[in-house]
Amino acid sequence: MTSGLAARSTAVYKVAMTIASVNPATGETLRTFEPYDEVEVERRLALADSAFRSYRRTSFDERARLVRAMADVLEADRAAIAETMTLEMGKPIVQARSEVAKCEGVLRYYAEHAPAMLADEPVTTTAAKHGSHIKYQPIGPVLAVMPWNFPLWQVIRFAAPTFMVGNVAILKHASNVPQTALNIEGAARRAGFPEGVFQTLLVGGERVQAILEDDRVAAATLTGSEGAGRSVAAIAGNAIKKTVLELGGADPFIVMPSADIERAIEIGVWARVQNNGQSCIAAKRFIVHEAIADEYQERYAEAMCKLVVGDPLEEATQVGPLATAQGRDEVNEQVVDALAKGAKAICGGAPMGGPGWFVQPTALTGLTPEMRVYRDEVFGPVTSFFRVAGIDEAIALANDTNFGLSSSVWTEDAAEQQRFADELESGMVYINAMTISYYDLPFGGIKRSGYGRELSPTGIREFTNIKTVWHD
Ligand code: NAP
């Protein structure tokens, strides 16, 4: 067995990340953390390894008891955990509280349903005389490399099934949400999980390679950007370890003439700006049929311009700052590029002054393929409008992207609904609804949005040994 922690580094990383909570609404540094040194990382990997050996033998009843206890801890601490998230990455406080509540829900969902999802499954074969069955068994410590945008939900939707399977979790969270990362580890300990079943490693992304190559780590899940996904998948591929990747998206939101326009506007604005526009499954490309495009765009822009932008700790705030200065600059550059090449802003469009990393909600029309917003993921509250002459063009434009996470389509026409469900190249299609992640539905994408699924019975089996048992 090798520890693999000698000085190796990922090629893409030139400098070590600073691990710090910085309030995006003010730019003030709240806390900084020393990254764990190699001795501490080694200690924690050894702990994960030994914790797995005993935790894998616990019963479903015991795991479910602990998972429910963790839901109770989150519920009791909901206000404080939510405030820390808002202070670290700027999401409006109301949305932060909902995120904690959703995490409580997914823990309870898996505590209740996982035993049935993982029960031995009889299989009738034509070959074995006495039939066969499939077992779903734990595989070991799983490394989770996670992003800051839903800093609790991304982690808990991975952790809940992990706990029920009997695997143990090693979290490498984004370097700008260390307090939330530590809150999750603290919640697991308070719930009564044995030491080592859930651990946070305070390390930058440049340390992922050595950790993932360590023989004690069985697999990895990454939610984040395409670049991070490519890097982690390459490392894991070389070490022959399974990965699940949840990457970026440029999801279409298609509105056809028969749609309920009122709802498609109200929900369309929300689908774009929730989480300050920083969601992988945000509606990013609005593809509207030309018969209703003028009315839709005008009323959408009016609704978008009324949004309350401001301090994310205020109850009334609907759009807070972007999480990082770099993210704010990137979105501003994408908008400037589009406007310089002839796009028109029908809402917003101008940079906002400081303090904090705010971006005005913005809606752009007149987009062409030369503009960055035409193809890039825009990770902020910016709507791109496209108009099409019919369903063929809508589907072709929707599929003209390297991403394939989800799609939202708005039409009352059953034949159109069927065609969208059949022909859109994405892991999910939501009809007359915005994309959401939900406990009992598989969540994940195709193309460069990643592979594998989270949530649902499908997600819980991703990191299991699907063992065939033959009876002759
Ligand atoms: P990111 O920069 O890729 O970071 C995500 C995580 O990966 C962080 O923990 C980061 O660590 C780590 N990381 C970055 N580069 C790495 C590398 N080369 N090797 C190993 N680890 C690396 O992404 P982000 O900016 O935080 O998140 C935004 C992206 O995530 C968007 O593209 C969004 O669409 C996507 N996302 C997808 C989903 C989904 O379910 N499909 C959900 C949410 C977000 P450091 O912080 O230390 O760099």
Short note summarizing the structure:
This protein has helices at 38-55, 60-76, 78-89, 93-117, 153-165, 178-191, 208-213, 226-238, 261-273, 290-305, 325-340, 372-375, 391-399, 414-423, 456-460; strands at residues 19-22, 29-33, 121-123, 132-138, 141-145, 168-172, 198-200, 219-223, 242-246, 251-255, 283-289, 344-347, 362-365, 382-388, 406-410, 428-431, 450-451, 464-470. With 472 residues, the chain is an alpha/beta fold. It has two domains: 3-247 and 449-469, Aldehyde Dehydrogenase, Chain A, domain 1 (3-Layer(aba) Sandwich), CATH 3.40.605.10; 252-439, 3-Layer(aba) Sandwich (Aldehyde Dehydrogenase, Chain A, domain 2), CATH 3.40.309.
Any overview of this molecule?
This protein folds into two domains: 3-247 and 449-469, Aldehyde Dehydrogenase, Chain A, domain 1, CATH 3.40.605; 252-439, Aldehyde Dehydrogenase, Chain A, domain 2 (3-Layer(aba) Sandwich), CATH 3.40.309. The strands form four sheets. It has a seven-stranded mixed sheet, sandwiched between helices. Residues 1-14 have low confidence and may be disordered. Helix content is 40%, strand content 18%. The chain is built from 15 helices and 18 strands. The protein has 472 residues and is an alpha/beta fold. Bound molecules: NADP nicotinamide-adenine-dinucleotide phosphate (NAP). The site of NADP nicotinamide-adenine-dinucleotide phosphate (NAP) has 31 residues, from helix 8.
Compute the separation of the termini in Å: 36 Å
Number of helical segments with 4 or more residues: 15
Radius of gyration: 23 Å
CATH fold field value of the largest domain: Aldehyde Dehydrogenase, Chain A, domain 1
